[in-house]
Amino acid sequence: GLKFVDVAKEAGVETGGRALGSEMYGSVRPCLGDYDNDGNIDIFLANYGPNGLYRNINGIKFKNVAPELGLAIDSCYDTGTWGDYDNNGRLDLYVNGTITRGKSYEDYLFHNDENGFINITPKIIKDNNGDHGAHWVDFDQDGDLDLALTGADADGMHHLLRNELSEELAQQSLQILVLDGKGHYTCAGSEVRLYEAGTKKLLGTNMFDTGSGYNSQNAMPVHFGLRGVKSVNIEVTVLTKGGRKSVWVENVNPKIYEGRYLIIKVNAHGELVK
């Protein structure tokens, strides 16, 4: 806990997805999420240059899959943020083009389906010309994720784009907030995995990532889209002085938590607090 070792080259993430040695290229902001639902946390990097998406192979090695998945667009970006906006059980990706020296670079919304990412950026996102700050949040607690954006307008900008997913699909989700044993927000970095109850089928993985958006911080719950899922088992992994510890909450009916969060408390020893 006193020293850090640079393992980027060994892990395969040294370049961030863009070329090294160029004064024009650089990585601006990483964000973490399990885009392929294999239980491992992957890394997206918003770059000046082609973006990088590093698939976590085994917790040690990573592979840049951005070129094959259509995400390595050569431009200037300053933030990315993961969120399952349509509750299909897979994390979608918003990527923010920067605004610099009087030029505005294009923003993107990529939908994650079984075959990769598709650019489905709607006109409202292009017109709002976001810059730097971005975060998914269910501000009206209707079950789907909305998008908060800041920008570089001369008079300032903080827009909130409401998600108009149908009520039927919006309610097929679950939001989970992990707090410490005293109810404090000290569990950043905790991982949450959902399994279909009574099976070993992994439905999704998410992490309490409190600051991926550039100049953007939060203390929001993690969100899972759960189309057609009636009951789940929840595994929460926290960091303690004794290492990684996991607790389980089983047979949770997401329907019970419509319009509110499921709060799970874990003490400093990694024990569930009821």
Automatic annotation (TrEMBL):
Phosphoprotein as UniProt keyword: no
InterPro entries cross-referenced by the UniProt entry: Crtac1, FG-GAP, Integrin_alpha_N, UnbV_ASPIC
Annotated ranges, domain ASPIC/UnbV: 189-252
Keywords of the record: Signal
Residue intervals passing through the bilayer: none
PANTHER family: CARTILAGE ACIDIC PROTEIN 1
Identification of the protein by name: ASPIC/UnbV domain-containing protein
Lineage of producing organism: unclassified sequences, metagenomes, ecological metagenomes
